[in-house]
Amino acid sequence: MKRKRITAKKLKIGIAAAFMIFGYSSVSAQQQISLQEAIKQALQNKAEAKKAALQVKKAEYKIDEARAGALPQVSATGNITYNPIIQESVLDFGGQRTVVKMGQPWTSNISASVYQTLFDQRVFTGLKAAKSTREFYILNSQLTNEQIIENVATAYYNVFVQEENLKTVESSYTNTEKVRNIIKSLVDNGLAKEIDLDRTNVQLTNISSNKQRLINGVDLAKNALKFYMGIPIDTEIELEEREIEPKPELLASVTNIENRSEIKVLEKQKELLQYNKKATEALLYPTVGLQGNYGWYGVGGKFPLTNGLNNGVNWSDFASIGLNVNIPIFTGGATKAKIQQAEIDIQDLNQDIENTKLSLNLDYENSVTNIENALINLKSMKENVELAEKVQKNTQSNYQYGLANLTEVLDAENALTQAKQNHANALLDYKQAEIKLIKAKGELNTLQNQ
């Protein structure tokens, strides 16, 4: 008998060891994703982030384009013409008329020209506007990244809470199954009623159905997270095991709405509109440029490119240097109208800036209120879980000694499950409020380092 006990004990130890080994292998095979890693992949993979980066790169080429207007413009031209029929003209010499052909069968012209802008207000304004455009796209890229970070963080914690709810239901199923096994043993020995066993099996079926619903919910939440991360939907991911710790200290610091990316983007857009107005005003200024030309001209009776003076083709060079001045005098009021339109665009954007500031202030005040309420609710739900666990343990103990009935046991288990799910949902509400507050403070980028 003693030998059988020792063998059974060894068997249990062997089974436990096997579960530990296989359990460790399973965990090691899973790719755990932290919030920082999820954000990093999203900023690398998402199309929005890539497009924003391309716009910044495009702005660099806009600067090159604007700078080109202040540099010398060099061009070269060449042409060759064959005149099968040469125009004739009549000349009068002392009353005697002579018919003369004006031209040669072949003419050729090769020349190069250089134009250098000396003064053009539009060129200088355009260069400043191009640099400001680059800054605008950089700010817009930051705003895009913040939106991506917010989406990823929200999706990440949604998965976390769904998994916590699933763990709660699985724990409830395990506890209820233990109760069912006890009741079954009692029924088999004639110490309990068959209806109690049936009621417990019904409870297990309901919990199993709820468990399957939550498994589906976890899969859907993970798919949403993978979408925001910009990775294939069929990629297997697991969240990093980590506790959610409330951060009441977030309420202590104040915020400056001017630091929000939304305001910076609008202010930079206003700067661009001001440059647009200056560029329009530049149409009223004169422009000055220096131009130079140099070339060769060939004419004769044969193909000029392969023949010279010995074969009847005369070649001669030419050159010119000129100063071009263009002074606008009257445009019918068109330039003035364009300037007024540009000014209205600036005033219109000023209204958008003021409205955005009001909206961001509202978001900040609401986020502070929401996180205060979330902290209160989270503390209350945590205390409720502790109380429900105490009631559940006492009820199960009382049931084993005949001091509580099955209904009380099942009710206590349901109450504990509901309390844990309420606590998990309170965690999600808190994290969503926390993300909104961090966004309202213009500090979403700090989530990359948490």
Structure write-up:
- This protein is of the alpha+beta class and about 450 residues long.
- The protein has a domain at about 120-285 and about 335-450: Outer membrane efflux proteins (OEP) (Up-down Bundle).
- Helices cover about 65% and strands about 15% of the residues.
- It has 8 helices and 8 strands, in the order αβααββββααβαββαα.
- The protein has helices spanning about 1-30, 35-45, 45-70, 120-190, 195-230, 260-280, 335-400, 405-440, and strands at about 30-35, 75-80, 90-95, 95-100, 105-120, 240, 285-300, 315-325.
- Strands 2-5-7-8 form a 4-stranded antiparallel β-sheet, with no helix packed on it.
- Strand 3 and strand 4 (about 95-100) form a beta hairpin.
- Helix 2 crosses helix 4 (about 120-190) and helix 3 (about 45-70) runs antiparallel to helix 4 (about 120-190).
- The model is unreliable at about 1-30 (pLDDT under 50).
